[in-house]
Amino acid sequence: HKSLEVSSQLLALGADCRCSFSGKCGCEEAMKFMGCIKSACNSGRCSCDNAGGVADHFVNACGQMETTCPASGILCTPTAATCGQLSVVRAGVAQPLTSSEGQSAGSTTIEEHKKTMEASAAGAEASLAHTASAQARRPGEFVTMLLAMVPLLIFIGTSTWVYLKHKEMTNAGIKVKVGWKSAGCCCLFCISLGSPLSLCFPIDEDVKDEAA
User: What are residue 83's DSSP bridge partners?
Assistant: First the structure.
């Protein structure tokens, strides 16, 4: 790097903040000097309260560096000093992401969003499959339940018929007994086609009692 005569204003700013410039116009030397100015601002060695104003040593020092080394490409803002790939950001100011970091963060966000959408789609497909499976099972479940109720319905029907038949015969003055009809109705209960109630309410006519 080429040495040059440092301006009196830059020397004065450096002296106020106890910083010295090497006199070489390179990004590394310039940012090293601005880093010292930043540290001096943070420690209170020099006045940097009036951010961007006349009394702001950080802004003034960067401006003098930009004037002293115009070919170095030094860029100054109220919040940062930049030269090439190097930068010095004032205290309390978030350093912006570089282009590569921004692209990486954007890519990560897109990937996360894509994964979330894929997970949601998979969940929706699973829910639809479960609903379809449940709907497909419903007719079969209904038939099974209906078949399970058939023996109960037969039992209720035959028991009701046996009771009403017994009551009809006794109201007519007919003597009843447990005969082949009553026994057969009870035996059919074993195959869910009869009722044991016929033993308590017989439905066979007692012919012998009538002959006597």
Answer: 74, 86
Q: Do 61 and 14 meet the contact criterion of CB atoms below 8 Å apart? A: yes
pLDDT above 70 coverage of the chain, percent? 81
Q: What is the pLDDT of residues 2-19, one digit of tens each?
A: 445 567 777 887 788 888
- Compute the CA torsion angle 25, 29, 34, 35 (nearest 10 deg): 170
Q: HSE (CB half, 13 Å, CA atoms) of 197?
A: 17
Asked if 27 contacts 72 with a C-beta cutoff of 8 angstroms, the reply is: yes
CA distance 162 to 138: 36
Per-residue pLDDT of 73-132, as tens digits, reads 899 888 889 998 999 997 654 444 444 544 554 555 667 767 888 888 888 888 788 777
DSSP class of residue 111 equals H
Cα 75 from Cα 66, distance rounded (Å): 7
Rounded-to-integer distance, Cα 90 and Cα 19, Å: 16
Instruction: Read off φ and ψ for residue 144, nearest 5 degrees.
Output: -60, -45
What is the C-alpha separation between 198 and 194, in angstroms, rounded? 9
Q: Span 25-35, mean pLDDT?
A: 89
With vertex at residue 24, the alpha carbon angle to CA 20 and CA 26, rounded to the nearest 5 degrees, is 110
